Amino acid sequence: MNCRKATRRISHSQRRDAPTDREWRHRNQEQWRGKDKVQVKPPEEDERHKQPEKDIVPRGTCQTMCPAHELQVRETQNRLHRFEMLGGTERNRRPMGDPLRAVKEYSRPAAGKDSTNPKELRPPAVLRKTVRYLIDGIAASSSLHPWTEVYNFVFDRLRGVKQDMIIQRVTGSDCVAILEQTVRFLIYASYRLCGEPLRLYDPRINDTHLQENLSWLLDCYATGTELNTNQEEFQALGLLYNLGSSRATQHVMDLPERLRRSPAIRLALSINRAFLERNPVRLLRLAQRLNFLQCCALHRHLVPCRRDLLLIFSHGYSNRNCRFPLDRLAQLMSLDTSLAAQLCQAYGLEVNQGNHVLFSKAAFTEPEQGKLHCKLYHNIVAEKQKDLTVASIIHGYV
């Protein structure tokens, strides 16, 4: 009968050169006390060796608006914008870039690409100089046109500025100054380019970036220790642009009392309340007190507001014998008489030969998509601009 040998367990004490039980206990006690330095390493030291770069914030050293390497690459690949070309070389097969006009373009993060190279990053002082050039030298220039191309160039280069700020974690007055000018530019562009073809200007993309920059700016105000003189202006702009938003309203209501009592914010809150109460007549009357940039922020709400006015009047004055004076209606809507008549007809309301509107709730209809052009009804905004220049609007000299 073949019997298998049972597996034999070897204890620590039976192994060659194995320590005794007493020695094991002594060694374990030393390890927990931190005396066994060979086997135990401080966890902080391990983290420092594993992740040496996590706490290091890159600092830019590029002193030009466009890094030399990028300018050279874009020259070689023929990717220079005409606003960046050296005078006299525009018609060359490969135009040369002007170091005084070239601006670093926005580039999407890509695998294997080092976006933290200090030579490719511009420090805050250079970023402020770049933004100043984009406003004064490009956006406000009277010789560069069409403005849709100007907008697309400035929009892209401002994204590049924002990218450098994020990588370097720029904060403080430099960050606030750049964001303020960016927000003003995007608000002004939303008004000036309203109604342009989508291939030239996309209002949704502009809105997305405007909201991001505005949110970052308001967060800088909330976390910063410095008192900013422009905070009242941008808190009001944020509410006027996001009229009716519960989040924007709550943000303003949570501001310190001294800010809430400022004239600009009190006016913005009154307009927002009129909007929430569906009181278009009061809203349009209060809008007359806004400055130009505030009207630019509000302008996208004007057509819906006037539509509500016509709908309310169509129910309130729906009577065969009722005639409402067109000039009075035009005054309430802050429009010329001809534009007021055109808007009434777009909603199916009749305007007779005596310049009276015949309101009827049965006749009121929504216009076809694309038939109603917001740009035609910008009177209330255009009247505010007067002699203001683009530079004075974006710099805030109003």
Automatic annotation (TrEMBL):
Coiled-coil annotated spans: none
InterPro entries (alphabetical): SAC3/GANP/THP3 (IPR045107), SAC3/GANP/THP3_conserved (IPR005062)
GO cellular component: centrosome; nucleus; spindle
Compositionally biased spans, kind Basic and acidic residues: 14-57
Region: Disordered, residue numbers: 1-61
Lineage top rank: taxon: Eukaryota
Biased composition (Basic residues): 1-13
PANTHER family cross-referenced by the UniProt entry: 80 KDA MCM3-ASSOCIATED PROTEIN, SAC3 DOMAIN-CONTAINING PROTEIN 1
Protein name: SAC3/GANP/THP3 conserved domain-containing protein
Top-level taxonomy: Eukaryota, Metazoa, Chordata, Craniata, Vertebrata
